[in-house]
UniProtKB/TrEMBL annotation:
Gene3D superfamilies named among the record's database cross-references: 2.60.40.790
Domain of life: Eukaryota
Matches recorded under InterPro entries: A-crystallin/Hsp20_dom, HSP20-like_chaperone, Small_HSP
PROSITE patterns hit by this protein: SHSP
Domain SHSP, residue spans: 19-135
Membership in a protein family: Belongs to the small heat shock protein (HSP20) family.
KW Electron transport (keyword) present: no
Signal sequence region: none
Protein's recorded name: SHSP domain-containing protein
């Protein structure tokens, strides 16, 4: 057995890395509409109780959850491949200034988590003109 294949337990290197990396195992799309920032995450097989959505004081959106092991491994069974991700996952996104962090909605439907963060108008500070004195 080569050293490289031993790193991946004789499996597909991409699948092995995907299972170890929460970023690769939980894909998220982020789109901005005129009214909101919308985050769409694939979380197949999870219920709303398995997922936690939070925004911290630094305006960071956290999507966290746990994919539980479903199968019981019987002694007389031989598994040829285990590719579906199990365990914890976490994704974080720094929200822009125009995100209204006190107006957030989240829902799960058909294995897709949708988090909608309303937008607010951000007023740009006006430039203050400083008079230059002659000395």
């Amino acid at each position: 057995m080569s050293r490289i294949s031993s790193l991946f337990n004789n499996g597909d290197p991409f699948v092995s890395l995907m299972n170890k990396c929460p970023v690769l195992s939980t894909p998220v799309d982020w789109k901005e509409t005129p009214e909101a920032h919308v985050f769409i995450a694939d979380i197949p097989g999870l219920k709303k109780e398995d997922v936690k959505v939070e925004i911290d004081e630094d305006r960071v959106l956290h999507l966290r959850g746990v994919r539980k092991v479903e199968q019981v491994y019987e002694e007389n069974e031989k598994w040829h491949r285990v590719e579906r991700k199990r365990g914890k996952f976490a994704r974080t996104f720094r929200l822009p200034e125009n995100a209204k962090v006190d107006d957030v909605k989240a829902s799960v439907e058909n294995g897709v988590l949708t988090v909608t963060v309303a937008k607010q108008e951000v007023k740009k500070p006006e430039a203050k003109v400083i008079e230059i004195e002659e000395k």
